Amino acid sequence: MDDFWQGGMEAVRLLATGDRDVWGIILLSLRVSLTATLVSLLLGVPVGAGLALTRFPGRAFVVGLVHAGMGLPPVAAGLFVSLLLWRNGPIGAFRLLYTPSAMIIAQAVIATPIVVGLTLAAVQGLDPRLRLQLLTLGASPVQATWWLLREARLPLLAAVMAGFGAVISEVGAAIMVGGNIKGETRVLTTATVLEVGRGNFEVAIALSLVLLALTYAVTLGLTLIQQRRPAP
Description:
mainly alpha
């Protein structure tokens, strides 16, 4: 218990004194994870809605892949992205490996199946007659899909929270594609692992507490939006 207390005091000290390294790690963690979450939304919501509203041969197989991808191990995602970005890889010429961009790509790979699966479930949970009614009233397929997504906005916010929570807390992919380079690709999770390896448990606990507080702050903000009652 003393270790947690000392770690908490260390977290307060690091934040209160404006430690440049710690604040740089915090800001990079937010930038990488929020960008990856945004990318996963831009990719995952249309795909999830499309899977929910269309029928085609092999659909069950694709949906199965999506559900399997929701449990994709971060180290597997990191390995896949590393192979793509390696010097001799398909897109190695862009030299993205060991950069924040590589971390964003890896985290987007992790979060996108989660967003697709939850979007699919949210849209499928709506009354199927609603889409038919919208089309009957003259809405285009795109407009009808937009209105369906608006109706499913509360579960979609849960998808955002799930995607963000999955990427802000992962460490395997971040180390594999980012390298944990000080001042460049070091984020809260990789910094915590580094401090544990060094035996600096107080600092490791402090960074973990900061990570938990940061995750809670973001998800609390999304929860307040989700639970907000519409004006009468």
